[in-house]
Amino acid sequence: MIKESALSTRDAIESIVVPAGDYLLKKISKGQTLRITDSEGNQAADCLFYSVSNSAERYSAMDTIRSQGNVYLTAGTTLVSNYGNPMLTISADTCGRHDTLGGACATESNTVRYALDKRCMHACRDSWMLAVAENIDSGISKRDITHNINFFMNVPVTEDGGLTFEDGISAPGKYVELEAKMDVYFLLSNCPQLNNPCNGYNPTPVKIDIW
Ligand SMILES: [Zn+2]
């Protein structure tokens, strides 16, 4: 569902550009709004969310899909934790559909999906592992890295129940906005993937704004 935001980036308290292949770990307080902008189009923003007070409580794809009865995320979606609590709601979305089934890229999946010699290529899981290693204070560890959201990524479910990685439906300047319902850690890997058409084989920066 396309829903424009009423917020202006001029009023944002913080704006950060995250290059492709980098991570961002940021605390978002209850009541704050987070916007992720697909600066150049067709990028995949691989995201995880954790409760600040307990990193064992985190975004759950299964609980979110079950509670809304829809496999795609868009405006109106509530991101539900593995404890059944609302973590954030998607308050605006100009892309219209986001994936939470496809998972994040890893060196292992690069090897299985593409070729053995793709194993050494940078993947989202590497960025998250680096993030938790460099931010021990967050309390998030390797064991907490689980299923995620791929904002802007187009992973349609086929008639026979399979998944395909398709050319993106996003475009330059499209954004998704989330309002925090609890204090959360936002962990982003701006996907460096070069082997599938979701980002047009050309990873690009995303912009983060916080109100
Ligand atoms: Zn990735």
Characterization of the model:
- With 211 residues, the protein is of the alpha+beta class.
- The chain has one domain (9-210).
- The protein contains three helices and ten strands, in the order E-E-E-E-H-E-E-H-H-E-E-E-E.
- Strand 5 and strand 6 (86-93) form a beta hairpin.
- The longest helix is centred in the middle third of the chain and has 11 residues, at 124-134.
- The protein is globular and about 45 Å long.
- Zinc ion is lined by residues 44, 46, 104-105, 123-124, 191, 193.
Question: Could you write a compact summary of the structure shown?
Answer:
By secondary structure, this protein is of the alpha+beta class.
Tally of contiguous helical segments: 3
Spatial extent as radius of gyration: 16 Å
Report the major sheet: 6 strands, antiparallel
Task: Report the uncertain regions.
Answer: none
- Domain module count: 1
Determine the strand fraction and express it as a percent band: 25-35%
What bound compounds does this protein have? zinc ion
**From N to C, what is the helix and strand string?**
EEEEHEEHHEEEE
- The overall average pLDDT, rounded, is 93
Distance between the termini: 22 Å
Strand order of the largest sheet: 1-10-3-8-6-5
Q: How do the helices and strands line up, and which of them pair or pack?
A:
Blueprint: E1 14-18, E2 23-28, E3 33-38, E4 45-51, H1 61-68, E5 78-80, E6 86-93, H2 107-113, H3 124-134, E7 149-151, E8 174-180, E9 184-190, E10 206-210
Antiparallel strand pairs: 1-10, 2-9, 3-8, 3-10, 4-7, 4-9, 5-6, 6-8
Zinc ion is lined by residues 44, 46, 104-105, 123-124, 191, 193.
